[in-house]
Amino acid sequence: MAPRERPAPRRHPSSRFLRCAAVGVDAHGRLLRLFTVNQWVVGDDRLGTEGTIALLPRFDVQMPRPSNLVNRWLTAIFTAYEREISELIRERDRALLTHRQPEGVEARQDRALEVTSELEPSDCRCSRPLRPKRGGGISAVPGH
Questions:
Q1: Which range in 11-15, 40-44, 131-135 is most confidently predicted, on average pLDDT?
Q2: Burial of 111 by CB count in 10 Å (0-12 exposed, 13-18 middle, 19+ buried)?
Q3: Which of the ends of the chain has fewer CB neighbours closer than 10 A, N or C?
Q4: DSSP state of 45
Q5: Rounded distance, CA 110 to CA 66, Å?
Q6: Which of 117, 27, 131 is nearest to 79 (CA)?
Q7: Helix axes 68-80, 82-98, angle to 10 degrees
Q8: Mean pLDDT across the stretch 40-66?
Q9: Cis status, amide bond into 66, omega within 30 of 0
Q10: pLDDT digits (tens, 9 = 90+) for 74-110
Q11: SS3 sequence of 76-122
């Protein structure tokens, strides 16, 4: 089966977007998996493996929109699974290096390669345990 054709995502030319990882959830918002995707999927800027990993500790979505609760939850997930996300990024880049793409197509633009690495949280130990926050939400326990 041929990969589904999708137009490249549109974004403002001056916007800077760097993907680290994606989060898969069920209909109730429970974490199902963490994964990375190829560059063509989101049309983002590209930074090398270690440069991307170096930014993970700074990941903090402190915006009231589109949802403050979701933004806080997402920040907690990235904090709790920082070590695992780092390994997913490394695995993503290994997959791109070993991928056999058609002649004349860069691995990052090959639409046959969409998901480049993934894990289910049950397959790993959380870098930092999660705990309920006072007043709702969750946060990663610092220092773990």
A1: 40-44
A2: middle
A3: N
A4: B
A5: 31
A6: 131
A7: 80
A8: 84
A9: yes
A10: 999 999 999 999 999 999 888 888 888 778 888 777 7
A11: HHHHHCHHHHHHHHHHHHHHHHHCCCCCCCCHHHCCCCCEEEEECHH
137 has pLDDT over 80 = no
H or E element at residue 69: helix 68-80
Cα 73 from Cα 75, distance rounded (Å)? 5
CB count, 10 Å around CB of 114?
14
Which of the 8 DSSP states describes residue 62? -
Helix, strand and coil percent figures for the chain, each rounded to 5: 35, 15, 50
CA–CA dist 5, 2 (Å, integer)? 9
What pLDDT does residue 45 have? Answer: 72
